[in-house]
Amino acid sequence: MSTPVVLQVAATPVLPPLVLRPWRPEDVAALVEVSRDPALRRWTSSVVDNAADGARWVQAQQRSWAAGDRFGFAVLEAQPGPAHPQLVGNVVLKEVTSGKPAAEVGYWTAAHARGRGVAPRALEALTRWAFDTFAADGLERLELVHQVDNPASCRVAQKSRYDLDSILPAAPPTFPRDGHVHTRHASA
């Protein structure tokens, strides 16, 4: 997929619009800032401590887009007036392979944006795009995996119509606790 993809999420009466677009080098400073959050660091597998880490992370996202197997989107929230949009999260479609019926989705939300519906709104946009874009390649199901002790992720899954499918056994060190596997089918 070589053409840039930008997904728009409309404003609601109480929430500003969101823009989902591939990560860019100019996102590094904001990425480093939001990555300082201890809660985010607890649930994510990659550590971004400084600008060099952030640049490597963004470059990895760009390489994955070019390879066509992982599609990470910076989630930006419009700001009033002439201010630039603010980074509020990340959503990703991963493990996309032609002929494979399932892929995985993931997300995180910046601390300053939690509790404002960013993750469910962005995940819904990603889900629709994934099924619209990859159905012809055989994509029928999306899976969302989180550790059982992450109730916020469970709520996002439920709000986004991802049904609890199974319990995933722990696989330390990368997945230290049991997990939930939520699924959503293209027909849902």
Please explain how this structure is put together:
The chain is α+β, with helices and mostly antiparallel strands and 188 residues long. The protein has five helices and eight strands. An eight-stranded mixed β-sheet has the order 1-2-3-4-5-6-8-7, with helices on both faces. A hairpin with a 7-residue loop joins strand 4 and strand 5 (102-109). Helix 1 packs across helix 3. The model has no long low-confidence stretch (mean pLDDT 90).
What's the short version?
It is built from five helices and eight strands. It is α+β, with helices and mostly antiparallel strands.
What characterizes the major β-sheet?
A: 8 strands, mixed
Q: Radius of gyration, rounded? A: 16 Å
Helix content: 25-40%
Strand order of the largest sheet: 1-2-3-4-5-6-8-7
What's the β-strand tally?
8
Q: Which stretches are low in confidence, meaning pLDDT under 50 for 5 or more residues running? A: none
Cα distance spanning the termini: 25 Å
H/E order of the elements?
EEHHHEEEHEHEE
Q: How many DSSP helices?
A: 5
Q: What is the average per-residue confidence, as pLDDT, rounded to a whole number?
A: 90
Q: What general form does the structure show?
A: globular
Q: Which structural class should the secondary elements be placed in?
A: alpha+beta
